[in-house]
Design goal:
The protein is of the alpha+beta class. The protein is built from 12 helices and 10 strands. Helix 10 runs antiparallel to helix 12 (about 325-335). The model has no long low-confidence stretch (mean pLDDT about 95).
Length: about 325
């Protein structure tokens, strides 16, 4: 099957790229890492106005979706610009509430009616913690308006969060959610959480792809300018090969991402395996792009003052978030 984005989807990506390019996201990332969420929340509102968050919310709750393919397109641009905040977790929480909202439980129906319209409009930042698939910590729980936690077949709304834990990426603020109110119990919770984890893995894979493309683009520009022996290092065969390998890995991940989005949109039984394949491929490609960027930039790539560091430090956490490479490979092999 040959698949290409249509004109509307490509224009959507271009519009997001233009908006985020003008938004000075590096400043928002640094502020978020320091605990100042004001610039990040302002950027969040602009993304909501562009319809990004509504893509994960059904129309009956004032959304546009669920539209996994358009979500993948959007999150590729969010990764390209290193936008901070629990965007992945928020759209995954929307998928969870959407599934449970139709299961007949009054508490979950009420939670869906309250939170889904706010997610779509950008008024609510929601984090999601599913220890079985996403680890024991909630991303940016201290900045979220709500933190949902799924443990086994129980869903609860966390009351508070523990202290922020150190992360390889300072803008990924991790905390363990504590206490809270039980919203639902039963097999439907586990099934909805599995679906939400697939949405999270897809969005994270898209972020990784965008991150890798940004790192590659910045590195290509740098090797055209940096000289050794009187010539640009980009003219060296070894450098060309390294960049070509990085590009091939990223472009190989792109069709896997789109295939996973289509499978998820169609409710295919193999969607979980396709999402896992996209997640591991995009994550590894972005991590390789970070290593390439660091090597070819040399010592300057380590400096905090260089914006490149904001992208490099995201590669490893994204590779492991919502499915480590080992876990994703195991899922693909088991399918």
């Amino acid at each position: 099957m040959r698949f290409l984005l249509d004109d509307e989807q490509r224009e959507f990506a271009r519009s997001l790229d233009g908006m985020l390019t003008a938004a000075d996201t590096p400043a928002a990332v640094r502020a978020w890492a320091a605990g100042d969420t004001t610039p990040g929340r302002a950027l969040w509102s602009r993304l909501a106005e562009a319809g990004v968050l509504a893509l994960a919310v059904p129309e009956r709750h004032d959304g546009l979706g669920p539209l996994p393919l358009e979500l993948a397109v959007a999150f590729t641009e969010l990764g390209r610009h290193a936008v901070p905040g629990p965007l992945v977790e928020t759209v995954a929480a929307a998928a969870l509430l959407d599934r449970l909202g139709g299961s007949g439980g009054s508490a979950t129906e009420g939670a869906a009616a309250v939170w889904l319209p706010q997610i779509a409009s950008g008024k609510a930042v929601v984090s999601l913690c599913v220890p079985e698939t996403g680890g024991p910590y909630a991303l940016d729980a201290d900045a979220a308006d709500a933190v949902l936690v799924v443990e086994g077949d129980t869903l609860r709304l966390a009351e508070t969060a523990g202290p922020v834990q150190p992360s390889a990426d300072p803008a990924r603020r991790l905390a363990r959610p504590l206490g809270g109110t039980v919203l639902a119990r039963g097999p439907a919770v586990a099934a909805a959480a599995a679906h939400a984890a697939e949405v999270a893995a897809l969005a994270t894979a898209a972020q990784s792809l965008g991150l890798g493309l940004a790192l590659l683009g910045r590195t290509v520009e740098y090797v055209k300018q940096r000289t050794q022996f009187g010539v640009a290092i980009g003219s060296f065969q070894a450098v060309k090969h390294r960049l070509a390998d990085t590009l091939v890995a990223l472009e190989f991940a792109r069709p896997l991402l789109h295939s996973a989005a289509l499978a998820l949109a169609g409710g295919a039984g193999h969607a979980a395996a396709e999402t896992a394949a996209a997640k591991v491929t995009a994550g590894e490609a972005a991590y390789a792009a970070a290593r390439t960027a660091l090597q070819l930039h040399g010592a300057v790539g380590y400096t905090e003052e260089l914006d490149l560091a904001l992208w490099i430090r995201k590669a490893r956490p994204l590779r492991d978030a919502w499915g480590t490479p080992a876990a994703c490979r195991a899922r693909v092999l088991a399918s």
